[in-house]
Write a sequence for this structure.
C-alpha cells in the first residue's frame, strides 16, 4: 500500500511490479489528474517523488514510477472466480486521516462489464470513501481483486461501491507502464562527440537486457538506462525515435488483442489520438499486431507505428512492444528520406529472444 499526495488532494495506490530499486504503482487516474509528478509515501513513512508514466481517463487508471528503495509488491488474484456474496476487504487512506491505511470489509454484490468505462467492475457494499481511491480490494487470502474507484452517493442509496476488476487492470498495465518513459526527442543543434561503441552492440545488432534484438544503423543514439522501463533509439538530427520494452501479459489480454478488442491507449501528453489502421503481423516463430497511429503533442502532429508481439512461455506470456514515432512533416520531407528508411529498417529488424 502507498499513499499518493498531489497539490489538489490525496489517494491510495499499490505496488504491482519491482525492477531492482524501481517500483511501479497502479492507482486511479482521478487521483493524479493534471500532475506529472506526485508524492508517494511507502510504508507510512518514506516519501518518494513519483513520475506519472501513463494514464487512462476512461478506465480511471494510472501508473506511477518511484525510485530508489527497497519495495514489496502485492500479488493479483482472480476476479473471474468471484461470486455474489464472497467477502472482500478494501484498504486505503480514507478521508486523509493521519496514520496507517484503514480497512473495511463487505461482500461482492456483482461483477459486471461497464461498456461506457471499457471495464469489468466489482460492485461491493464495503465502504469506499474519499482517499480510498486507487487502493486495493483484497480477497480474504490477501490477493488484489480490484482497484477501488468510486461509490454511488445519494440519500436513497446505501452500500454501492465499485472497484476496477483485476482483469481490466492487468490488461491495461503493460500499456500504462510503458506509456511515455521518454519525451519525444528534440534534434540537437551542435555536433555530437565521437560516439563510444555500445557494449550491447555486436556487428550492428543491439541485444537488450530483455533478450530481444534490433539492427541499429551507425549514428543512432541508444538510451538503455537500467532505471527506465525499456530502451529508446533516436536520431540526433531529427525528432524520430523508437521505444521498445518487454513485460508479462495475461492469456485473457492476448485473446482480446488477437480479436481486436484491446488496443494501445492514448499516452500522457497526447491529444487527438487515433488508430488509423491495424493489421495482424506474422513472423517465423511468433505473431503480433500492428497499429498505425497519429496524435498531437503540443502544436506538433506525430505519426507512427506500434507493434505488439507475443510469445507464450511455460508459465507466463510475454508482450514485446515497439513504438516508432516521428513528426508528420519528417515522414514527408525528401531530405529525411534516408533517416526514415533507416527508421523503418530498425522497426522491421526486431527479433525475439531465442527459447
Amino acid at each position: 500500500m502507498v499513499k499518493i499526495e498531489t497539490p489538489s488532494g490525496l489517494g491510495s495506490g499499490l505496488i504491482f511490479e519491482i525492477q531492482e530499486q524501481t517500483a511501479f504503482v497502479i492507482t486511479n487516474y482521478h487521483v493524479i489528474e493534471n500532475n506529472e509528478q506526485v508524492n508517494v509515501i511507502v510504508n507510512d513513512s518514506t516519501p518518494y517523488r513519483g513520475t506519472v508514466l501513463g494514464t487512462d481517463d476512461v478506465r480511471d487508471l494510472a501508473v506511477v514510477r518511484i525510485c530508489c528503495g527497497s519495495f514489496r509488491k502485492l500479488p493479483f488474484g482472480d476476479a473471474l472466480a468471484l461470486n455474489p456474496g464472497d467477502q472482500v476487504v478494501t484498504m486505503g487512506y480514507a478521508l486523509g486521516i493521519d496514520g496507517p491505511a484503514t480497512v473495511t470489509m463487505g461482500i461482492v454484490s456483482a461483477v459486471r462489464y461497464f461498456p461506457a468505462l471499457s471495464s469489468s467492475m466489482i460492485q461491493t457494499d464495503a465502504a469506499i470513501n474519499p482517499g480510498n481511491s486507487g487502493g486495493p480490494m483484497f480477497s480474504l487470502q490477501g490477493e488484489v481483486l480490484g482497484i477501488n474507484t468510486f461509490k454511488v452517493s445519494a440519500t436513497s442509496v446505501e452500500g454501492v461501491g465499485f472497484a476496477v476488476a483485476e482483469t481490466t487492470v492487468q490488461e491495461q498495465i503493460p500499456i500504462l507502464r510503458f506509456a511515455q518513459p521518454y519525451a519525444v526527442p528534440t534534434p540537437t543543434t551542435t555536433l555530437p562527440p565521437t560516439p563510444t561503441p555500445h557494449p550491447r552492440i555486436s556487428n550492428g545488432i543491439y541485444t537488450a537486457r530483455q533478450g530481444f534484438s534490433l539492427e541499429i544503423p551507425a549514428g543512432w543514439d541508444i538510451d538503455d538506462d537500467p532505471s527506465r522501463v525499456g530502451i529508446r533509439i533516436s536520431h540526433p538530427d531529427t525528432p524520430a525515435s523508437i521505444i521498445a520494452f518487454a513485460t508479462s501479459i495475461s492469456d485473457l489480454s492476448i485473446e482480446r488483442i488477437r480479436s481486436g478488442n484491446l488496443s494501445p491507449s492514448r499516452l500522457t501528453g497526447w491529444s487527438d489520438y487515433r488508430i488509423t489502421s491495424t493489421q495482424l503481423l506474422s513472423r517465423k516463430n511468433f505473431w503480433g499486431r500492428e497499429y498505425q497511429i497519429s496524435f498531437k503533442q503540443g502544436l506538433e502532429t506525430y505519426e507512427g507505428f506500434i507493434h505488439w508481439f507475443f510469445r507464450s512461455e511455460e508459465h507466463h506470456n510475454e508482450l514485446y512492444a515497439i513504438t516508432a514515432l516521428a513528426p508528420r512533416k519528417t515522414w514527408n520531407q525528401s531530405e529525411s528520406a534516408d533517416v526514415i528508411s533507416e527508421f523503418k529498417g530498425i522497426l522491421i529488424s526486431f527479433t525475439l529472444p531465442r527459447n
